[in-house]
Amino acid sequence: MSNRRSPWLVLVSSLVYVFLYVPIVVLVVFSFNSSRTNVVFEGVVNQGPCGPFYWFCQLFSNGEVLTAAQNTLTIAFVSTLAATTIGTMAALALQRHEFPAKSFSEVSLYIPIVIPEIVMGIGILVLFSTIFRFLNNALGLSGDQRLSLSLWTVIVSHIAFSIPFVTLVVRARLHGFDKAVEEAAMDLGANEWVTFWRVTLPMIAPGVLSGAMLAFTLSLDDFVITFFTNGPGATTLPIYVYGLLRRIITPEVNALSTVWIAMVLIVLLISQRLESRST
Amino acid sequence: MAAWLNRLRDKHSRRGLLLISPTLLWMIGLLIIPLILVIITSFGQRTADGGVIYTFSPDNYLRLVGLSRNAPCGDTPPPCFDDLYVGILWRSLVLAFQTTVLAIVVGYPLAYFVARAPAKRRNLYLFLILVPLWTNFVIRIYAWIMLLRTQGVINGIVGWVLGLLHISFTPWEMLYTPGAVLVGMVYEFLPFMILPMYTSLEKIEPSLYEAAADLGANTLRTFLRVTLPLSAPGMVAGTILVFIPVMGTFIVSDILGGRQVILVGNLIQNQFLSARDPTFGSAASIILMVMTLIVTIFYARRFGFGEEVASA
Amino acid sequence: MFTIRTTVWRGVALVALASLMLAACGGGAGQTSSGPKTLPSGFECPEPSPKLDVTSKEVNLFVWTEYIPQDTIDCFQLVYGLTVNRDEYSANEDMYAKLNSGSTSYDLVQPTDYIVGLMARQGLIQKLDKSKLPNFGNLDPNYLNLAFDPNNEYTVPYQSGTDAIVVNTEKVTDVPTKWADLWKPEYAGRMVFLDDSRAVIGLTLLTLGYDINTTDPAQLEEAKAKLAELVPNVKLFDSDSPKSALIAGDVDLGMTWTGEAFLAQQENAAIQYIYPEEGALLWQDNYAIPTGAPHLDAAYAWLNYSLQGDVFWMMMRDFPYTNPNTAALEFAKTNHKDLYDAYINSPITNTPADIIKKGHRVDDVGDALPLYDRIWTEVKGSN
User: Is residue A125 part of a domain?
Assistant: First the structure.
């Protein structure tokens, strides 16, 4: 650790933090704007029963936004859970086992990183259409029973682009892993399954967690792929917000971002508190 | 074949296959097969209604590199070299390069700062870098519109300050310029550069700094001969994480550039939607992928991926 | 390690809690049971007339962003007891790409005129059964039987409008009167145009005296050259919310469509909408039913309800476009006189008949589309 911290370094770093946060601050401040057109800040709004929180109240009575938010979270959750599990398994396989098709697997995991999102989106759309068309005909489904784009097609797609990132992160963690601990556990009588749960997993947990967070972030913000794979009732926040750009962007959108940021900060602060308390 | 089957009999190998099977299912199903479809489409020809005739025609690729037979040649007699799409590819490369360099320059000090900070604080600093990423991508760009526009926050503050000093001020036209796109790109992707660089820097043993000091190196020399080389893998990983998305992005250039900055991503989006030419769009996508693959492979060969990319 | 796992679980619990809260908040719309049909906001819902027999439990709309009054949706859910699922798009091409994939299950879409023919040819939309549309008669015949859908086999008109010149008369003294005026050097760097290749190339063709849907490569080359002179003077292209730039003062004039101009004028009365001498661009948004719609009865119920005069007038209240529904206009005239007067007196929403006659409608150009696209890419891309 450096005990002589250069003041220049601190200054420049602070400036970079400022750069990162100025847009955020602007967003939050403007969510209290009294001007509906939201171009210039004309003063704090004071309208209706909610007063300065007028736009927030508007937001919470907006069913569309809430549904979209709910969908976004659901998709992020489920896809993260699945991708983390599958990705960790893959990392273990690639790092510790030799098997046919190993190189193929490794290469294929790099594809989502280099492929343009719109290509992946359209490609997946075509794929789903072909499969659905075939299944609908073969099984004679119609009307409401028909297979079509829905929340599940979005989740499946999100899992697809999250797996490689989880795998990468967990593999890196496994890279410097000292197998001696595992061997010791097994020498002491633990079988493979127990060893995995009580020894291996806890030791790679930070990597698994990072991978999960990465997958969650990617899913939360995804626009292009979600656009091409979603169906009725499966709108997500990014798509909703992008669609909102058609109208005057009222401070309601800012209120949405403020709420989002606040939630993120709360989760962050609480987890920090928990960690420091248990240390 | 027999050897292959023999390997399967090995329990270790079977276990490996089992673990990797869901991943393979997803990768093959949702990535490789669609990719193959895209490649096939890129060799096709467009129907009047925007459908695809599946043939084997290199026309789309020729058109991209400017050697198409149908290229409009203006005054010169055909065949001529059409630089329209090559120009777009080049411009995207330049922007990606500029973004990456700026991200390194801006992000390095912060990465260094966090890496040398006390362990207790480091997580907090890191999370603070991540928080902006967890807000909505489109909303963040929109915030830049509010900052950069003629009546925006920046012009407002500068005008107010200069007003106090009685200096007249015509607002700067910052929005809807290529500069605005660059700022937006750097802003969006800065965290992806900082995190890998941080990981590299954090791994540097403090004792190395002490050793350098003991050997008589001053701050600058230490930085140039010890820190910089050892953090190179991080910069490389960061470059990959920034360069590739910038090449393929279209939303930032759309919104902040007033839809006048056409990059490869915009071109591809255009082809699939307004122009209804999926064959040309597919070809452009493949070229884009090939370009990013070349960059990736080059870096992977020289430096290896490792933990730096993983940390992001 | 214990710490991390606890943290994870608590984090997970928190986010799960958050989403549950959201679910509780958002679940209110439209689930109320019998009784007087009034929305929580106090708005009284008109009864459906005629009321159709509907067995489906829901209807899936795929519509333009912010183009249906929330009250209409809420009322429909209330009077029919159905759930309305709404997905949105902000460009016809996006909607087309989704429908073309054949894996969607929407009951209604809102294509603009130029894409209707293409969708019909591709079998993406189905022919309407007029016997199920008793309220079809509410529509003004001037908006029916247009070239893009003879006899309205596939579409029900929704809203209509124009693309024309918009000017902030406070900032611009020399007000343009024709498309060709926009090329004047004094407007450089002060204009906003729609990010619509057909519309912009189209108006350039008009200044040269050519047809807006020409497929003649020579004419298109000329248009390209002329357009190349204009583009450097354009500050931004925007098909999402061009009025924002106008209101914010980023631009002083340009080209936009009915709704945007009207809303801009509301914010700043100095903003005027001018129909150019060469002729404005006409467009019309319509309802259509995709092939294979799973809830056909609900779709017809929606169409009929939406077409009612006492329901459709809300469009005039919420979205300022040209209204093709005579019953709605009559209803507004009787019950909401101010709204009606504002609509009728504004040349923006109430497009004068001679303007419509002089207007030009964009149509699909089939094989020539790549030519248009190339021009667009070239003039924009070589900046």
Answer: yes
Q: What is the CATH number of the domain that holds A137?
A: 1.10.3720.10
In this complex, the residue of A205, A235, A274 whose CB is nearest that of residue C87 is A235
Q: Is 3.40.190.10 the CATH number for C58-160+283-345?
A: yes
CA B179 to chain centroid: 17
More confident call, C109 vs B282? C109
Fold adopted by C161-282+356-381: D-Maltodextrin-Binding Protein; domain 2 (3.40.190)
Q: Is residue A30 included in any domain, yes or no?
A: no
Residue A149 lies in a domain: yes
Residue ranges per structural domain of chain B? 1-42, 84-311
First to last CA, chain C: 56
Asked whether A55 and A254 are in contact (CB, 8 A), the reply is: yes
Q: Does the beta-carbon distance from B273 to C91 stay under 8 Å? A: yes
Nearest to A275 among C7, C61, C103 (CB): C7
Across the interface, whether the CB atoms of C15 and A60 are under 8 A apart is answered: no
Is C378–B84 a contact, with Cβ atoms under 8 angstroms apart?
A: yes
Concatenating the DSSP letter of every residue in C197-261 gives HHHHHHHHHHHTT--TT---HHHHHHHHHHHHHHGGGEEEE-SS-HHHHHHHTS-SEEEEEHHHH
Q: Is C122 an interface residue toward B (CB < 8 Å)?
A: yes
- B27/A257 touch (CB, cutoff 8 Å), yes or no: no
Confidence of residue B75 (pLDDT cuts 50, 70, 90): low
Q: How many CB pairs under 8 A join A and C?
A: 146
Q: How far apart are CA B241 and CA B197, in angstroms?
A: 11
- Is the minimum CB–CB distance between B274 and chain C shorter than 8 Å? yes
Compute the average pLDDT of residues C98-113. Answer: 87
ipTM of the complex: 0.81
| Gyration radius of chain C's alpha carbons | 23
Q: Do the first three CATH levels of C58-160+283-345 and C161-282+356-381 match, i.e. the same topology?
A: yes
- What does CATH list as the number for B84-311? 1.10.3720.10
Tokens found for residue C79: 């009077």
pLDDT tens-digit readout, A65-85: 888 888 999 999 999 999 999
